[in-house]
Amino acid sequence: MTDHFRSVRREGLFEHTERGSRFIGICRPISGEEDAAALQDDARRRYPEARHYVYAWRIDSPLRLQRFTDDGEPHGTAGRQLLGALLAERIDRAAILVVRYFGGILLGTGGLSRAYAKAARGALSDAGPVRLIRCQLYMLETDYPVFHLLENRLRSAGFYQELPEYGARVRQLVGAERSRADELRQLVMQVSGGAAMLEPCGERWVEESS
Asked: Which long-range contacts (CB under 8 A, 24 or more apart) does 39-42 make?
Protein backbone atom coordinates (compact mmCIF):
# COMPACT_ATOMS: atom_id res chain seq x y z
CA MET A 1 0.00 0.00 0.00
CA THR A 2 1.35 3.41 -0.94
CA ASP A 3 2.45 5.95 1.67
CA HIS A 4 1.69 8.97 -0.48
CA PHE A 5 -0.56 10.14 -3.30
CA ARG A 6 -1.78 13.30 -5.02
CA SER A 7 -5.40 14.36 -4.73
CA VAL A 8 -7.42 17.54 -4.19
CA ARG A 9 -8.19 19.21 -0.85
CA ARG A 10 -11.73 20.51 -1.53
CA GLU A 11 -14.51 20.83 -4.11
CA GLY A 12 -13.53 23.09 -6.98
CA LEU A 13 -15.73 24.93 -9.51
CA PHE A 14 -14.98 26.50 -12.87
CA GLU A 15 -17.38 27.88 -15.46
CA HIS A 16 -16.91 29.19 -18.99
CA THR A 17 -19.03 29.75 -22.09
CA GLU A 18 -18.18 28.69 -25.65
CA ARG A 19 -20.42 30.02 -28.46
CA GLY A 20 -23.45 30.04 -26.24
CA SER A 21 -22.86 26.70 -24.53
CA ARG A 22 -22.28 26.94 -20.81
CA PHE A 23 -19.78 24.51 -19.26
CA ILE A 24 -19.61 24.10 -15.47
CA GLY A 25 -16.78 21.97 -14.11
CA ILE A 26 -16.87 20.41 -10.64
CA CYS A 27 -13.95 18.54 -9.08
CA ARG A 28 -14.22 16.75 -5.75
CA PRO A 29 -12.08 14.37 -3.65
CA ILE A 30 -13.58 10.88 -3.36
CA SER A 31 -12.80 7.74 -1.41
CA GLY A 32 -14.85 5.31 -3.46
CA GLU A 33 -17.33 4.73 -6.26
CA GLU A 34 -20.19 5.79 -3.99
CA ASP A 35 -18.71 9.29 -3.70
CA ALA A 36 -18.43 9.53 -7.47
CA ALA A 37 -22.09 8.56 -7.82
CA ALA A 38 -23.01 11.15 -5.19
CA LEU A 39 -21.29 13.86 -7.25
CA GLN A 40 -23.41 12.90 -10.26
CA ASP A 41 -26.60 13.01 -8.20
CA ASP A 42 -25.64 16.39 -6.72
CA ALA A 43 -24.93 17.87 -10.15
CA ARG A 44 -28.29 16.75 -11.54
CA ARG A 45 -30.07 18.35 -8.58
CA ARG A 46 -28.09 21.59 -8.80
CA TYR A 47 -28.35 21.92 -12.58
CA PRO A 48 -31.59 20.13 -13.54
CA GLU A 49 -32.00 21.83 -16.93
CA ALA A 50 -28.55 20.89 -18.31
CA ARG A 51 -28.22 18.80 -21.48
CA HIS A 52 -25.17 16.72 -20.51
CA TYR A 53 -23.49 15.53 -17.29
CA VAL A 54 -20.08 14.25 -18.35
CA TYR A 55 -17.88 12.72 -15.65
CA ALA A 56 -14.63 10.89 -14.96
CA TRP A 57 -13.10 9.56 -11.78
CA ARG A 58 -10.14 7.46 -10.73
CA ILE A 59 -8.82 5.66 -7.66
CA ASP A 60 -5.40 3.99 -7.61
CA SER A 61 -5.50 2.29 -4.22
CA PRO A 62 -6.27 -0.28 -2.92
CA LEU A 63 -7.52 -1.25 -6.42
CA ARG A 64 -6.90 0.72 -9.58
CA LEU A 65 -10.27 1.88 -10.88
CA GLN A 66 -11.25 4.57 -13.36
CA ARG A 67 -14.47 5.40 -15.16
CA PHE A 68 -15.68 8.04 -17.57
CA THR A 69 -18.67 8.76 -19.78
CA ASP A 70 -19.46 11.09 -22.68
CA ASP A 71 -23.14 11.18 -21.62
CA GLY A 72 -24.45 11.56 -25.15
CA GLU A 73 -21.68 13.77 -26.55
CA PRO A 74 -19.82 12.47 -29.64
CA HIS A 75 -17.52 9.59 -28.73
CA GLY A 76 -14.12 10.72 -27.45
CA THR A 77 -14.98 14.42 -27.11
CA ALA A 78 -15.84 14.69 -23.42
CA GLY A 79 -15.18 12.00 -20.81
CA ARG A 80 -11.65 11.27 -22.01
CA GLN A 81 -10.77 14.94 -21.64
CA LEU A 82 -11.85 14.87 -17.99
CA LEU A 83 -9.94 11.68 -17.28
CA GLY A 84 -6.95 13.14 -19.10
CA ALA A 85 -6.94 16.13 -16.76
CA LEU A 86 -6.73 13.80 -13.75
CA LEU A 87 -4.01 11.67 -15.34
CA ALA A 88 -1.93 14.66 -16.43
CA GLU A 89 -1.69 15.87 -12.82
CA ARG A 90 -1.38 12.30 -11.42
CA ILE A 91 -4.49 12.92 -9.31
CA ASP A 92 -5.81 9.98 -7.30
CA ARG A 93 -9.14 9.61 -5.41
CA ALA A 94 -10.88 12.42 -7.22
CA ALA A 95 -13.77 12.93 -9.64
CA ILE A 96 -14.51 15.60 -12.22
CA LEU A 97 -17.96 16.30 -13.63
CA VAL A 98 -18.73 18.88 -16.32
CA VAL A 99 -22.29 20.08 -16.82
CA ARG A 100 -23.19 21.46 -20.25
CA TYR A 101 -26.08 23.72 -21.16
CA PHE A 102 -26.33 23.57 -24.96
CA GLY A 103 -26.29 27.02 -26.55
CA GLY A 104 -27.73 26.08 -29.93
CA ILE A 105 -24.46 26.24 -31.91
CA LEU A 106 -22.52 23.06 -32.71
CA LEU A 107 -18.90 23.30 -31.63
CA GLY A 108 -17.51 20.45 -33.70
CA THR A 109 -15.51 17.61 -32.21
CA GLY A 110 -12.37 19.71 -31.77
CA GLY A 111 -14.16 22.63 -30.17
CA LEU A 112 -16.15 20.34 -27.93
CA SER A 113 -13.02 18.52 -26.75
CA ARG A 114 -11.26 21.78 -25.97
CA ALA A 115 -14.26 23.15 -24.09
CA TYR A 116 -14.57 20.07 -21.88
CA ALA A 117 -10.83 19.99 -21.27
CA LYS A 118 -10.84 23.66 -20.25
CA ALA A 119 -13.68 23.14 -17.77
CA ALA A 120 -11.97 20.06 -16.32
CA ARG A 121 -8.60 21.76 -15.87
CA GLY A 122 -10.22 24.82 -14.32
CA ALA A 123 -12.22 22.80 -11.81
CA LEU A 124 -9.18 20.70 -10.92
CA SER A 125 -7.06 23.79 -10.34
CA ASP A 126 -9.74 25.35 -8.13
CA ALA A 127 -9.98 22.14 -6.08
CA GLY A 128 -6.38 22.62 -4.90
CA PRO A 129 -4.16 19.69 -5.96
CA VAL A 130 -2.12 18.51 -2.99
CA ARG A 131 0.26 15.69 -2.06
CA LEU A 132 -0.89 13.60 0.89
CA ILE A 133 1.35 11.40 3.01
CA ARG A 134 0.53 8.61 5.43
CA CYS A 135 1.68 9.82 8.85
CA GLN A 136 2.56 7.81 11.92
CA LEU A 137 1.13 9.97 14.72
CA TYR A 138 2.43 10.42 18.25
CA MET A 139 1.30 12.44 21.24
CA LEU A 140 4.30 14.39 22.46
CA GLU A 141 4.28 15.50 26.10
CA THR A 142 7.09 17.49 27.68
CA ASP A 143 7.90 20.50 29.83
CA TYR A 144 7.96 24.05 28.48
CA PRO A 145 11.74 24.63 28.07
CA VAL A 146 12.18 21.39 26.12
CA PHE A 147 9.06 22.01 24.06
CA HIS A 148 10.31 25.37 22.80
CA LEU A 149 13.52 23.68 21.61
CA LEU A 150 11.64 20.75 20.07
CA GLU A 151 9.01 22.80 18.29
CA ASN A 152 11.59 24.58 16.13
CA ARG A 153 13.62 21.44 15.48
CA LEU A 154 10.54 19.47 14.41
CA ARG A 155 9.40 22.27 12.12
CA SER A 156 12.84 22.62 10.53
CA ALA A 157 12.96 18.88 9.89
CA GLY A 158 9.56 18.96 8.16
CA PHE A 159 7.67 16.78 10.65
CA TYR A 160 3.89 17.09 11.04
CA GLN A 161 2.71 19.21 13.99
CA GLU A 162 -0.73 20.21 15.24
CA LEU A 163 -1.45 23.11 17.57
CA PRO A 164 -0.08 22.40 21.06
CA GLU A 165 -2.19 22.10 24.21
CA TYR A 166 -0.82 24.11 27.13
CA GLY A 167 -1.29 22.90 30.68
CA ALA A 168 1.04 21.80 33.46
CA ARG A 169 3.05 20.33 30.58
CA VAL A 170 2.78 20.81 26.84
CA ARG A 171 1.04 18.20 24.69
CA GLN A 172 1.22 18.21 20.90
CA LEU A 173 0.23 15.73 18.19
CA VAL A 174 3.22 15.18 15.89
CA GLY A 175 3.88 12.77 13.05
CA ALA A 176 6.16 11.47 10.32
CA GLU A 177 6.09 9.23 7.28
CA ARG A 178 6.74 5.62 8.21
CA SER A 179 10.20 5.85 6.66
CA ARG A 180 11.04 8.74 9.01
CA ALA A 181 9.31 7.55 12.19
CA ASP A 182 12.58 6.40 13.78
CA GLU A 183 14.16 9.75 12.89
CA LEU A 184 11.32 11.57 14.67
CA ARG A 185 11.62 9.46 17.81
CA GLN A 186 15.40 9.86 17.90
CA LEU A 187 15.14 13.65 17.52
CA VAL A 188 12.64 13.92 20.37
CA MET A 189 14.74 11.76 22.69
CA GLN A 190 17.96 13.55 21.77
CA VAL A 191 16.64 17.09 22.30
CA SER A 192 14.74 16.19 25.49
CA GLY A 193 17.48 14.04 26.95
CA GLY A 194 14.97 11.20 27.10
CA ALA A 195 12.58 13.17 29.29
CA ALA A 196 9.81 13.69 26.72
CA MET A 197 6.95 11.21 26.39
CA LEU A 198 6.01 10.05 22.88
CA GLU A 199 2.89 7.87 22.73
CA PRO A 200 1.82 6.24 19.39
CA CYS A 201 -1.61 7.46 18.17
CA GLY A 202 -2.21 5.56 14.93
CA GLU A 203 -2.05 6.87 11.37
CA ARG A 204 -3.61 9.64 9.29
CA TRP A 205 -3.33 11.07 5.78
CA VAL A 206 -2.00 14.63 6.02
CA GLU A 207 -0.92 17.27 3.53
CA GLU A 208 2.78 17.33 2.84
CA SER A 209 4.36 20.43 4.33
CA SER A 210 5.81 22.85 1.80
From this structure: 39/95, 39/97, 40/97
Task: Kindly report the pTM of this predicted structure.
Answer: 0.82
Q: Which residues contact 26 (CB under 8 A, 6 or more apart)?
A: 11, 12, 13, 39, 43, 96, 97, 98, 99, 123
Question: Is the alpha carbon torsion for 201, 202, 204, 209 positive or negative?
Answer: positive
CATH of domain 4-127: 3.30.230.30
Contact 82, 98 (CB under 8 A): yes
Question: pLDDT digit of tens for each residue in the chain (210 aa)?
Answer: 578 899 999 999 999 999 999 999 999 999 999 999 999 999 999 999 999 999 999 998 767 899 999 999 999 999 999 999 999 999 999 999 999 999 888 899 999 999 999 999 999 999 999 999 999 999 999 999 999 889 989 999 999 999 999 999 999 999 999 889 999 999 999 999 998 999 999 999 988 865
The DSSP-derived string for 93-161 is: SEEEEEEEE--SS--HHHHHHHHHHHHHHHHHHHT-EEEEEEEEEEEEEE-HHHHHHHHHHHHHHT-EE
Q: Which of 96, 89, 88 is nearest to 29 (CA)?
A: 96
CATH code at 132-207: 3.30.70.240
Q: Where along the chain do its domains lie?
A: 4-127, 132-207
